[in-house]
Amino acid sequence: MQREARSREFYILALFFGLFVLFLYGPLSAILILSFQGPNGGLTFPLNGVSLRWFANLFETQAVGDFGGSFRRSLTLGLMVMAATVVVSLLAGLAFRRRFFGASALFYLAVASLVVPSIIISLGIGVLFQQLGLQPAWYSSAFGAHMTWTLPFGVLIMFAVFNRFSPVYEEAARDLGASSWQTFRHVLLPIIAPSLIGVGLFGFTLSYDEFARTLLAAGTYNTLPLEIYAMTTNVTTPVLYALGTVTTAFSFLVIVAAVLLILRLNRRRLKG
Q1: What percent of the chain is modeled with pLDDT above 70?
Q2: Which stretch of DSSP H or E encloses residue 172?
Q3: Would you tell me how many other CB atoms lie within 10 Å of the CB of residue 121?
């Protein structure tokens, strides 16, 4: 009876998971299929032939839309946010290992942006730059807006990492004569490296596809999410689906690269 009950629970959970995956990736599969429309194909089913015409169209001069420029801006902004999120989150995690005055207030201030509507943050940063006589831009005001989104996640991850981190390793290194920098460089950093990669992945992916916090803070030039949104109102060919397929594939590639890097670091640490 217990075996039958467990089997029944397994199939129920498997069915639920299957429905979740279908709901999550169903729209992506539709975009993937429609991106292979024939040269005379439209934006809906059924397919009118099969071709790579719309992928090639991404690299041609567009009457509407700037694919290459918006992608480069999103990629650069994502890398900037990733680097800043990793560094600040690491420093915050190290600082909060010891209690100091105002630690609780600083923590709640850091995570408060998670509960503030994203569009309000974007609007506030854009207005602030204008009041200061500065021109909002994707590399300045949008960078700050994205940091309010990625930094709380990075800080929370590092808090969890250091809460489980045993100081015995650092004490042993100091007993052997290692300096503070040597302890950090050769003991602490290799152990928490996979977590730092996770923080970096969080920072990059959250920034790369962020729309609401970029909308009113990006200035003159669009990032890729803004460009895609603008194209939905004036592009009438499957090139939009081809762009969605390419950007989705790029996102999965980044995730796979991060996972492989983490596995390599873990393997090297076990060998060491």
Answers
A1: 95
A2: helix 168-175
A3: 20
Domains along the chain?
67-234 (1.10.3720.10)
Instruction: Write the CB contacts of 142 (distance below 8 Å, at least 6 apart in sequence).
Output: 77, 136, 213, 214, 217, 218, 219, 223
Instruction: Give the chain's largest Cα–Cα span.
Output: 73
Summarize the confidence of residues 240-255 as an average pLDDT: 85
Q: Is the peptide bond before 46 cis (omega within 30 degrees of 0)?
A: yes
Q: Dump the DSSP string for 240-272.
A: HHHHHHHHHHHHHHHHHHHHHHHHHHHHHHHH-
Tell me how far apart the alpha carbons of residues 103 and 204 are, in angstroms, rounded to a whole number: 27
**Tokens at residue 160, please?**
């969890």
Which residues, other chains included, contact 147 with Cβ-Cβ below 8 Å and sequence gap of 6+? 81, 84, 85, 88
* 149 band by pLDDT with thresholds 50, 70 and 90: very high
Count Cα atoms within 13 angstroms, Cβ side, for 82.
18
Q: Are 65 and 231 in contact (CB under 8 A)?
A: yes
Please list, residue by residue across 55-93, b when 16 or more beta carbons sit within 10 angstroms of its beta carbon and e when fewer do.
Answer: bebbeeeeeebbbeebbebbbebbebbbebbbebbbebb
At residue 155, what is the residue type? V
Look up residue 90 and give its two tokens: 């690491």
